[in-house]
Amino acid sequence: MKSAISSSLLFNSKNLLNPNPLSRFISLKSNFLPKLSPRSIIKSPSSSTSALRSISSSMASSFQPEQARVPSALPLPAPPSTKFNIGLCQLSVTSDKKRNISHAKKAIEEAASKGAKLVLLPEIWNSPYSNDSFPVYAEDIDAGGDASPSTAMLSEVSKRLKITIIGGSIPERVGDRLYNTCCVFGADGELKAKHRKIHLFDIDIPGKITFMESKTLTAGETPTIVDTDVGRIGIGICYDIRFQELAMIYAARGAHLLCYPGAFNMTTGPLHWELLQRARATDNQLYVATCSPARDSGAGYTAWGHSTLVGPFGEVLATTEHEEDIIIAEIDYSILEQRRTSLPLNKQRRGDLYQLVDVQRLNSK
Predict the structure, then answer these.
(1) Would you call 182 a catalytic residue per the annotation?
(2) Is the pTM of this model over 0.70?
């Protein structure tokens, strides 16, 4: 054992003391590294670059990046519109449902008048955020009309203004079950998708906050990604943002943008709200947009606010404080390819070591 250790240390010492830094690189032996001549590397910088690219390509092949996603990741689709404005409507919410619907309508109209082609509303914008309120304010979205005045308004406004609306979320009633549901309406006024919150907000931070959505709500069972006039969008609701696997699945399905209506609280909001948005954007190299209710210190549940748009490098492009506000910001999808070329993460994943399985896509094959 002593001999083996001494031999290893001697090898490393020789490499460290060698005045030619290239010799240490060349002395490494691997099944996927081609043999290179030190003379040829030193002689021609261009041939050195080509050789290193060849090594990188060989390494990528052996790392099997395409197998890091199961099924394989879809290519980023060409969006119908490369550049457009998004509107984030941070709204005050009261116990008056009719007022909440009318107020949201006016905010959407204002955002559209300022050039927004995509409008995002907050989580639970038509109702106070409480387990007592969810059953009272819940709507039958599938029935529509008078059974769902909130979505009826969203449908009418999206069609009239010819914009796409990510309708925040409202309590949805299906039989004896309640869901926290986000509806996506296209510029034709049609319901394009419906996302039911997958991860329920059940937390207990002693001395700070305790909330158990599962007391009244049922968890959704399906990731939601939708093609719209403003690109392919993955949907999550509030607590869903904590689970990077969901965002990774959306990225592997070719999402340009992730939208999270959310109502983080005064405990986790300052610590995690912006952090999680930037992490989801950076990890997946896409845009992330969030929209919170405005803060009401007198409410039973106090929202953090700070609705935000984050770019694919994790940069905060637009944000606000906790009061009511409408943020208008530009999204430019042409940047996505630039960022992914600069940091080619999709080509560097280690499919030989780990995999993310999209169960829904795998089972639909």
Answers:
(1) no
(2) yes
Considering 117, 172, 197, 259, which one is annotated as catalytic? Answer: 197
- Other Cβ atoms less than 10 A from the Cβ of 352: the count is 12
Digit-by-digit pLDDT tens for the chain (365 residues) are 433 333 333 333 333 334 444 333 333 333 333 444 444 434 455 555 555 455 556 666 789 999 999 999 999 999 999 999 999 999 999 999 999 999 999 999 999 999 999 999 999 999 999 999 999 999 999 999 999 999 999 999 999 999 999 999 999 999 999 999 999 999 999 999 999 999 999 999 999 999 999 999 999 999 999 999 999 999 999 999 999 999 999 999 999 999 999 999 999 999 999 999 999 999 999 999 999 999 999 999 999 999 999 999 999 999 999 999 999 999 999 999 999 999 999 999 999 999 999 999 999 97
Pairing of strands 257-261, 231-235: parallel
**Angle at Cα 129 formed by Cα 123 and Cα 134, nearest 5°?**
100
Query: Is-catalytic flag, 123?
Result: yes
| Active-site residue identified among 89, 117, 123, 139 | 123
* Catalytic-role residue among 89, 182, 238, 259: 238
User: What is the C-alpha to C-alpha distance for residues 95 and 117, in angstroms, rounded to an integer?
Assistant: 29
238 is catalytic: yes
